[in-house]
Amino acid sequence: MSDRKKWLQRAENLMNDYCKGCFLYEHNKTDKGKRHAHRFCISDCTVGLEIKKYGDMLAGKVKEEDKKS
Prior knowledge:
Number of strands: 0
Order of helices and strands: HHHH
Largest sheet: none
Shape: elongated
Mean pLDDT: 90
């Protein structure tokens, strides 16, 4: 399996396992709005940051040596 497929599969698994039905997302969405909830997910949530890392790798924004960490 290619690296791109692995990264995509890992990101999808994270979203399926942790993001669907996330209490924090729903709470933030209700209290502060959808935009704030999304910003929290991509900026502060550890799972969101991991997914963002895979997205950066897919987009080619991460150097080869940074992909291993």
